[in-house]
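Side project, low priority. Logging it here so it doesn't get lost.
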Amino acid sequence: MVFIMVTSKYPNHKIDEVTKLFTEKKVPELADFVKLINIFFPADFNTRSYALYEAPNDKLYDAMISISTRYDGYRNIEGFKYKIEPLATVQEVLPMIGLGKK
């Protein structure tokens, strides 16, 4: 499985708009092979969030398209920005830097 993290940022005065779209499910659904693990908010309750998704390795591209399409549903909220990043585990990274099995 591959993990994908999305960092979202938006102006403080837009929290109600973001929340409404999310809770009323007015943004596109994820593809059935993409699983939302959890959404995290920093303890300072700033206007950003981190969402962690999981998808099969061979579906990374399609998962990123699905997630991008979902977040594009927020595009009309002024100042809303997001960044999508595929993540690697420690076990996956160690061989890349010569410290583990290949």
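Brief comment: The first helix runs from residue 15 to 23.
Revisit when time allows.
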